[in-house]
Amino acid sequence: MSGSSGIAAVAFLGVTLAAGAVYYWPKFTRKAVAAEAMPRIGHAESQNVSATVTATGTIRLRTGAEVRVGAQISGIVTKLNVTVGSHIDRDAVIAEIESRGLDARIAQARSQIEVDQASVAKLERELSRSRKLLEEHLIPRQQTEDLEDDLKSSQARLDKSRSDLSVVESDMPYLTIRSPISGTVASVSTEQGETVAASFNAPTFVTIIEDNALELVAMVDETDIANVRASNAVTFSTETYPSREFHGTVERIAPRATVVSGVVNYEVGVRIRSGLVELKPDMTANVTIETAQRHALMIPAEAIRKDGEQRFVYLASNGVGQKREVAVGQRSGAWIEIKKGLDAGDGVYLRDLTAAGGQK
User: Fold this and answer.
1) Architecture of domain 53-63+211-293
2) Tens of pLDDT along 60-69?
3) Fewer CB atoms inside 10 Å of the end CB: C or N, the chain?
């Protein structure tokens, strides 16, 4: 009996909940639809707007950013520590050259110094004896004077031999070739075990591209170049990264024009401030140069409606959309300038009013 009562109670509860759902569901649905249909409102506000110049450009290496490192003495490359694409730090060892030839020249120069020192010492002894004999009038003065001249010549030869040794020893540092900059190895023109022959033009071992050596060169039309100044802020994107925004600063403006197919442009050099790791030489860029800033009345761009050439908005006034014609100006992201038709603080509907019962 108790089991039957429990089943009956559960059944009654289920019927009650179902009836409540049937009664209240339309109300909840109407509220949700009404909330969804409620038009959104944006407001006209004063903002700083950038005056800009647009152009196309190319990522390039700065002048002097590519360094060719060569050998200043001849010899066999005994060690080569770099490959194409590897990064190298300033003063790091690129390669080493065998020193047998240089060692032989140093040994020869030192031997010559010993010979000249012995000659000088011998002449000094002979001159000392000659002077004593001259004091005793046992030899003619001419003999002593000849020995003095011989000693001077021998001393000069010794000085030259020492100088020659210094010259030969000055080549010792060139046996180890070091990187003059930090950068990425772009090319390697020799291999370990090869013989290099230094001449008036040092043979190139490697070519290194300096770190952060890229710049942007934008071609600005002659009608816009008067507004561009050094230190202007620059934003740009590339064909490789169309959705990525990079930043830079105008560094220089070419004094002479570049004419291509009758179109006059001026090269504008831009120092890149971000994204140097991702950017590569010869990438194409879409460039925007910020030339000035001004105050403008802006509203969300989605509030603008079109009717042929006419532009208008729905002014939010007492819950009713009042149609208002406006004159628009520059667009900046999701905002658009209003030159005429609105005042700061005016509210405008951001969606079509048909669903909300407003006027069209």
Assistant:
1) Beta Barrel (2.40)
2) 988 878 888 8
3) N
